[in-house]
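As a warm-up, study this chain.
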Amino acid sequence: MTTEAELSADVDAFFTNTLPGVLEGVHGHVDRAKAWRGALYDAGLAGLDYAVEYGGRGLDPSFKGVFQRAAAGRVPPEDGMFGLGVGMALPVIRDHGSDNLKAQLLPDGLSGRQIWCQLYSEPGSGSDLASLSTKAVLDGDEWVVTGQKVWTSGAQNADVAILLARTDPDAPKHRGITMFVLPMRQEGVTVRPLKQMTGAAEFNEVFMDEARLPKDFVVGEVNNGWRMAVALLAHERVQTGVASVDRTNEKNKTGRVPIPVRFLTELAKDRGRLDDPVVRQELAELYSGERVIGFIRDRGGSHPSIGKLWRTRQGRAAAEFAARIAFPASPAWSEGDEDLDYFAYHVLNCRGMSLGGGTDEIQRNTIGEQALGLPREPAVDKDLPFSEIMKSRSGR
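Now compare it with the structure written out below.
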């Protein structure tokens, strides 16, 4: 039986002795990401709480905290490419998928041979996700999918997607949804990037025109996809809520993470503001917030929306501090200054933290209903057939 000390030693040896040689000479974001993940899998560190037959180690989930502490500041930034697959989709497949799905998908996902994306939001269904209209129809041994998704992170690199589609339009909206696994690299799937004000294109819109997937690529049961969707969202909020802001010593312009306080302290020092008592007080508050995120992560057991909301709050506060110190006159900056570009990116990007994984308003509702036991908000269309709701919306 592996002990915490033995696992910590294994992790340290991997980062010290194995990983540098694996990444040496490997260029390109995708190639480096796959090389890193493959090496982690070969070392037996990619799925600590997964069964051995799927490439895991069969350990208690508490051992993930041991890995996080031993790996702090050493994980390559390219690992973010696997956040959705490893952090969200694969746990749901592990817990609710068929044995066939597990055998086909878990080893490739844990090892980085497959990259995942999440096909949830649609132009007409954002916070009210259950109103989605993408449909899946069974045709012999395949499901045929038609519809549009939007705000899909990483779809341009994805091999497979976790997909929510409507399979029974005559059932109430929450009861006629099924969760699928959709192969992305097929003729019926079109991915178009959405450029953000940061200049990056992290998101995409995805069009499915009679895209096909095997009959057994269903996660859970047909028409019981809402339960699967909620299970995945819980993993997503854990992922976005308590992921460390201190994973790397590099200033990366990727993802939606709070600016580390050590970088804000350096910024204040460079601007000659470190002796300002107001600035010092703000830095102390930001440091406390960063520590709270770590405490939530290490303690475990908190409702995932709590960590997600706290991290959003921290991200906005850190970006606002950076804006006041780095850009006191306006949000404009001179391109080419690598340091200023980093802070400008996060100033522009931080608002997205309030949207991804569910808006702040949705998180507060969730905490109120699920953690505090408050009554649910009234929903007049909860028991109506979805087809009737659509007729009402169209005026027919």
